[in-house]
Design a protein that fits this description.
The protein is an alpha+beta fold and about 290 residues long. It folds into 2 domains: about 5-120, Probable inorganic polyphosphate/atp-NAD kinase, domain 1 (Rossmann fold), CATH 3.40.50.10330; about 130-265, Probable inorganic polyphosphate/atp-NAD kinase, domain 2 (Tumour Suppressor Smad4), CATH 2.60.200.30. The chain contains 6 helices and 17 strands. The protein has a 6-stranded antiparallel sheet, covered by helices on one side. The longest helix is centred in the first third of the chain and has 14 residues, at about 75-85. It starts with 6 loop residues before the first strand and ends in a 6-residue tail after the last helix.
Length: about 290
Amino acid sequence: MADAIKRVGLTAKHGLTAASDVLADLASWLTARHVEPIFDDHTAQLTQVPTVRRVSRDDLPRECDLLIVLGGDGTLIGMADRIAGAGTDIPILGVNYGSLGFLTEITLAELHEALEETLAGRASIDVRTMLATQTVRDDALFAQHIVLNDMVITKGALSRIIEISVTVDDAPVTSVRADGLIVASPTGSTAYNLAAGGPIVHPAVDAMVLTPIAPHTLSNRPIVIPGAERIEVTLLDDQDVMLTMDNQVGVPLRERDTVEVQQAATRIRLLRFPNKDFFSVLRTKLKWGER
């Protein structure tokens, strides 16, 4: 990190009152080092620090050089999507509350040391691929989003099995009859994709994953495809079906709607503590090696 960090954004999970004292401590710690702390409006309500500048959560990525996220992976993903929408590339330091996250891997005990390393320019950075999605209805663009983890097509509670056609770079792949379909980035491979039986993909691998959700045909299996490909997913059923991006935004789909997915030009930069790597997080999170 060649540029000096002068402004640090602080954001916490909505209603995380347990972070109140930590936020106040962070504001004082940063100010003492001539770094300006900036809260988003919701986070500012969790603590009693009257002099700190406050901005909206959507504007926060444009106002800081580093973003500290206190909460879980969902909170970090929500901010990553906002960073992409803001067109910035500020790094994110994820601080975990509760069980260890795949993305929020820094513990409270490690926070000050991790910040010292970051401000000194010695932090390691993981660059993560994002996915750009476009939903086309009647030959017109209906919705578009950039996501860190995945886009998911799922049937409604009362829907039957839905049918979805899949093409990759205009080449027909398959027609899936299932409860739904996941298109995941390598980062998202440890989210819903993993729960649905998809493979774990190292975040440095240039790939995307297609994973059917409870497929009617057992031969429909997850597929790992090159990251440079373009995926088109078309809904073939007139049923209650939802497209969800990063579990943050939902769009109802209609029959013949097509969702186009490809790697986004935007990348997200995650700060990594020196003693943490992808495999150590997997061992801890998935309890590998334990009896």
